[in-house]
Write a structure and sequence with these properties.
The protein is of the alpha/beta class. Helices cover 33% and strands 20% of the residues. An 8-stranded mixed beta sheet has the order 3-2-1-4-5-6-7-8, sandwiched between helices.
Length: 221
């Protein structure tokens, strides 16, 4: 498989649509939730006819309707929130994409990438802010180099802060472009850099990153 996509919500919707549009035909899509009417404004892979369906089933139906290409899509309708569970499903994939909405799974995805050696494209959105970066395991800065670990409390999330559809749309397309670049070996990946976008102010910022000595994830000395 080309891509293990964690999440078929807001970010996952944008990523999946863009990847299939770019000719990526092999996907594993992971999500344990069902389509909700209140989320359709940002989860554009689904529509009102999908309400109540598993997001994974809705995703396959809509993606297959978009192209004449033969898509190979495996679905996993359960939560993968440990490094071991993610690593097991990522075996044989070329890229892991983190389109999740909680810190526990984000760090589990980071640790699974370090365990398997598979590049990870990380993205996150809350309110009017978004960020993304790419991790080459044990070569470039990982998520734990930045934040060490998830916070004791979940903090600001889409549920507590809300998020607009265009925000996840733009961030998801950035992430999908990064995946396509990695698969096709084109361009400069967003490694050792964190792109943040403040949509409230209309500003983009690129933060230069370095592997952190003593990182609990990649163990850089």
């Amino acid at each position: 498989m080309d891509v293990l996509l964690l999440g078929a919500g807001g970010l996952g919707s944008a990523v999946a649509l863009a990847l299939v549009g770019a000719g990526i035909t092999e996907l594993i899509i992971v999500d344990d939730d069902q389509v909700s009417l209140s989320n359709l404004h940002r989860q554009v892979l689904h529509d009102i006819s999908s309400v109540g369906m598993d997001k994974t089933a809705s995703a396959v139906s809509h993606l297959c309707a978009l192209t004449d290409d033969a898509l190979s899509i495996k679905t996993i309708t359960q939560r993968l929130d440990t490094p071991e569970a993610i690593a097991a499903q990522a075996a044989g994939c070329r890229v892991i994409v983190d389109g999740t909405d909680n810190f526990q799974t984000r760090f589990a995805a980071n640790d699974a990438a370090l365990k398997t050696g598979i590049p990870l494209v990380h993205g996150a959105v809350v309110g009017l802010h978004g960020q993304f970066m790419t991790i080459f395991p044990n070569e470039t800065a990982c998520l734990r180099c930045l934040f060490d670990g998830p916070p004791d409390e979940e903090g600001a999330t889409c549920r507590t802060q809300g998020v607009l559809g265009p925000v996840v749309g733009e961030m998801g397309w950035w992430m999908a472009l990064e995946v396509a670049k990695l698969i096709h070996g084109q361009g400069q990946p967003m490694v050792n850099r964190l792109m943040t976008i403040d949509f409230h102010q209309g500003r983009r910022r690129e933060v230069i990153l370095r592997r952190r000595a003593g990182c609990s994830g990649c163990g850089h000395e």
